Amino acid sequence: MSTGKGSLAVATLVALLGAAPLAAGQEPQRQSGDVQAMFVQGFNTTKVYMLVGGGANITAQIGDDGVLLVDTGNAAASAKVLAALRRLTDKPVRYIINTSSDREHSGGNENILKAIGGQKTAQGGGGGGVENPNGAMLVAHQNAANRMADPTDKLPAYADDAVPKDTFITENKFIYFNGEPIELWSHGAARTDGEILVFFRRSDVIAAGDFLDTDAYPVVDMEAGGSLQGVLDGLNHIVTLAVPRFNQIDGTRVVPGHGFVCNQSDVAEVRDMATIVRDRIQDMVGKKLTVEQVKAARPTLDFDPLFGATTGPWTTTAFIETVYADLKKPRKGPPPQSGLNFGAR
Fold first, then answer.
1. Residue 29 half-sphere exposure, CB side, CA atoms within 13 Å?
2. Of 42-46, 121-125, 245-249, 311-315, which gets the smallest average pLDDT?
3. How many CA atoms lie within 13 A of 323 on its CB side?
4. Half-sphere exposure of 10 (CA within 13 A, CB side)
5. Are the C-beta atoms of residues 251 and 209 closer than 8 Å to each other?
6. Residue 28 near residue 36, CB atoms below 8 Å
7. What is the C-alpha to C-alpha distance for residues 322 and 294, in angstroms, rounded to an integer?
8. Would you say residue 3 has pLDDT above 80?
9. Coil vs helix vs strand at 207
10. pLDDT > 70? residue 178
11. How many other CB atoms are found less than 10 A from the CB of residue 142?
């Protein structure tokens, strides 16, 4: 897996829309608590950026028609997110897509919508803000919108204006904006039951949301309908969509929910890690081992230097316990497949 770190100065990173694209494996150096903007890839006058430092990674597509944001970060970082965006463009935000109901991804909805003019709905415009009186269309999977309105994490519900009104319940949804088709894909139960990934087809950039985290083991929230198999399904889909240019270098860029910009090979390595750990724990479950025996066997040992954590909200122990509980649940149909392939979906 690529581990290189970007070290360019912030002024260089955001000065020109035509700057060199961020290479897979590069991660911005975070300075002074600001949100950093990194050019990822694009075509003609349409450019895609990754904004880092607002909680989860935010993807911004900027073109002649305006701005489309994938996620808004956490509420505390909203002013810095908008400042980073305004260093890139003065065009209005027309779309916001939430990949998840998680507050690191969508907690900034209310603040950013207030700043840009509210949420555009089928009934009319937004809140009449200075930037965009018509408001921005706020899009998400219906399950994510439901969890924003009725959270399972014991936190207050989102304000009604911050809950997406343009939702879908099918496998996918399509938007055409800034000269390119944009595909939104759901894979059922992943971190939660409302995760989606977003594919910018002409820019050749995938915003993976929490299907992909290069800094930690996959997060699964079973109380919110999540499952590791859904995460693996999403990772397999990304591997299938992504096309390398040469020897697994360059080509499709993948913006993870957390961590550095990836290529197809990086995503496949994360997918393989999660599959191998899942299969190890599945074997132990089949042998009737208790969760304490599974933890003692250390099924993640060889991956812990890259993904493990002993402190924080998502430790290695929490990951093992969650995968064990997930695999112990009664299931219909055949057992999970290994997923170690590059075949068609």
1. 11
2. 121-125
3. 32
4. 16
5. no
6. yes
7. 12
8. no
9. strand
10. yes
11. 15
Residue 24's pLDDT is 56
Q: Which residues contact 35 (CB under 8 A, 6 or more apart)?
A: 51, 52, 53, 54, 58, 73, 77, 80, 81, 83, 84
Residue 134, pLDDT score: 75
Smallest CA-to-CA distance from 235 within 265, 194, 202 is with: 265
Structural domains of the chain sorted by starting position, each given as residue range(s) with its CATH number in brackets: 10-328 (3.60.15.10)
* pTM, full prediction: 0.86
Give me 49's structure tokens.
């950026």
Per-residue pLDDT averaged across 251-265, rounded?
A: 96
Encoded tokens for 343: 């075949």
The candidate with the shortest Cα–Cα distance to 254, out of 310, 204, 314, is 204
Cβ neighbours of residue 67 closer than 8 Å, sequence gap 6 or more: 60, 61, 85, 89, 91, 92, 93, 94, 95
How far apart, in whole angstroms, are the C-alpha atoms of residue 189 and residue 222?
A: 9
